[in-house]
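Here is one chain, start to finish.
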Amino acid sequence: MNSPRDLRRRIQSISSTAQITKAMQMVAASKMRKAQQAALVSRPFVHLLYRIQREATTHMGEFKHPLVDVREVRKQAVILIGADKGLCGALNSNLFRLVADFDPKSTIFITAGRRAAQFIARTGRQLAADFVYGDTPRFPEASAIASFARDLFLKREVDQVQVIATRFMNTLTQYPVCLEYLPVGEIKGLKIPGVKPEEEMPGDARESLFEPNPEFVFGYLLSQYLNIFIYQVLLNAKASEQSARMVSMKNATDSAESLIKDLSLEYNKLRQGNITKELLEIAGGQSD
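Its structure:
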């Protein structure tokens, strides 16, 4: 049975922990609002750019850009975008489960975020490059990741590039996704307003004219599309991380407060029992 001293120490220790988790919850909530706004505000622009990309690449005609070249997949690269820190629930573990679907012998990894790089190193998989991004992802950070992956594909060092990241839905809902990145084509599994399914695209017989020429148009369009694609993925990943951390710290704070109430009740009962026992002993001594 716990003594009153032991209970007091436990209550003090848990109270200190609750103060820490409460502070982390408030910090994450502050960062979460900014990250969520950035992810949601940029989403319509990315959807529009994706629609332009699908319309353009479908009407390329005889011209074929190297970035849309579909090849037999002998080796592939995966861009794994994780969190920089822990204490965000099952966010990272759910994300890393998707990595198990890739053969480590034929897959190289490009990581963004310290947790992702640590996971790849710990599991003995091949790490091609490690990138970092801050609490507010910047476009140059996304461009660096996109350029590295694009160079691997154009040099034929890999035949396919995919992205594993967390898609942000709302504060309580974030889920891991695996998206096709290179060669440029339709993003499977995502429904974007205004974009026809892949099977309906070839039936559109509209004629398209590219000025000044297809090489210039596609060289610029596809490069910018790939950069902005990764930038949007980083924004979603950061919004998901801050949201998951805020919810996780709130749950930890609530659990700590509930445990403190239970321990305080036990302490008061024990203290009341000791007082009653002492009173009975005093009363018994007087009667003797």
